[in-house]
């Protein structure tokens, strides 16, 4: 009886304790389990990537896709075929992510990297055509949102240029760095480009000022050009001076390294074919391919050999 009475005294306390456990502790445990389950179900690769691009001399970073809109508007004519604009968007997105390590470093808005026009500049440039051009370019960027070019699971250096000479240039010829996806390919830019071949003239005084020499017209007439396998000038020899084709192009401010030089009376005539360094995607070539029925992905695969187009994730 003594033991029974002793246990009887504890029964109410045990019941009260159980009630407290059910009323207060169990809901907390249940809520903790729900929170833990929600956290586990979140997949980092399924989250929306918030990548911001820092443009040199600009106060605030902008979103990646807004940056791509500004690059496509600056780098490619808005009247190009929509598939060419899409290809440009994919290349521009790849280039900025690769060169800035996904936005960790800033990028110059110049021809040495990628030109970028903000909305104010676009409005000033396009005037009454702003709404039409803006919509067209935004649609091209939106339809390729997040798409990038990869080779061996790494972002490529997605170089591009305005207009080739019928063949694109290899990275090895251009910089000495051989990249398997930047090899020469055929490009039919000239079918639609109105300024494929351009002629410039120089007096001997202008010529010497640009080259820093004291050459005569007869010496210029004996100038020798050595070409590489894509038809571009690899070396220029004039009297006892030798330049690379790239350096000579820079000194004379020529449109490309595919040029011919002739002396006509008292004038030096330089004729160039194409426009730009020639490496990677030709923009006029992309437009020509698009007008012939090629998709943006086909254009990318043509100019960047053995690459794949993938969606970026947040797990870089």
TrEMBL record:
GO cellular component: outer membrane-bounded periplasmic space
InterPro entries: Bact_Sporulation_Assoc, SpoIID/LytB, SpoIID/LytB_N, Spore_II_D_firmicutes
Pfam family, one: SpoIID
Domain named Sporulation stage II protein D amidase enhancer LytB N-terminal: residues: 60-151
Gene Ontology biological-process annotations: sporulation resulting in formation of a cellular spore
Domain of life: Bacteria
This protein's record includes keyword Cytoplasm: no
Residues forming coiled coils: none
Transmembrane annotation, as ranges: 12-30
Keywords: Membrane, Transmembrane, Transmembrane helix
Name of protein: Stage II sporulation protein D
Lineage of producing organism: Bacteria, Bacillati, Bacillota, Bacilli, Bacillales
